[in-house]
Amino acid sequence: MGFSISQSLLLTIPPYAFTFIWLFITGWVSDTYKTRGPVIIFNCLLEIMGVVMIGWSPTNASKYTGVFFCCASASANVPLALAYQANNIRGQWKRALSSATIVIWGALGGIAGSLVFRPQDAPKYHPGLYAALTAASLTIINTTGLMIYFKWANAKADKGEMVLEESEEFRYTI
């Protein structure tokens, strides 16, 4: 985008200030409506929009706007994903293993990010942007699959045809 190092550092403040606010908004919405999956998918769609703006917008202003969408949506999905698994898994050890798995995948994503956003791809970084688009798309597909399964399993449990997580009262959070 052509900014100096000090300008670039200063320009990171507004997107992360917005991210701070967005975390509370998405947390409040998902808690109020007792739903996680649709909020995660919405954030992924915002992330995709942000990545496209960063990678293919003609102006720095629109690219910078894309940074807001990417930072806020990707960051908000971390606590949402942890809450989603915590809501849908019973048992201390299963929940602990699930949380650790999510954190490990996040760390692997950080490693992958350092490999796909390569210096030789500057200034466009298309391989990294394609990887980000792929990750967000896979999250949408996986979350949609979970939501479909959870709705199906909840319907079966409501009819008394299935016991979820070894408890007749338990229902999955969509």
Automatic annotation (TrEMBL):
Membrane topology, as annotated: Multi-pass membrane protein
Transmembrane residue ranges: 6-25, 37-58, 64-84, 96-117, 129-150
Keywords, ordered alphabetically: Membrane, Transmembrane, Transmembrane helix, Transport
Primary localization: membrane
GO molecular function, one term: transmembrane transporter activity
Cross-referenced PANTHER family: MAJOR FACILITATOR SUPERFAMILY (MFS) PROFILE DOMAIN-CONTAINING PROTEIN, PERMEASE-RELATED
Designated name of the protein: Major facilitator superfamily (MFS) profile domain-containing protein
Species this protein is from: Dactylellina haptotyla (strain CBS 200.50) (Nematode-trapping fungus)
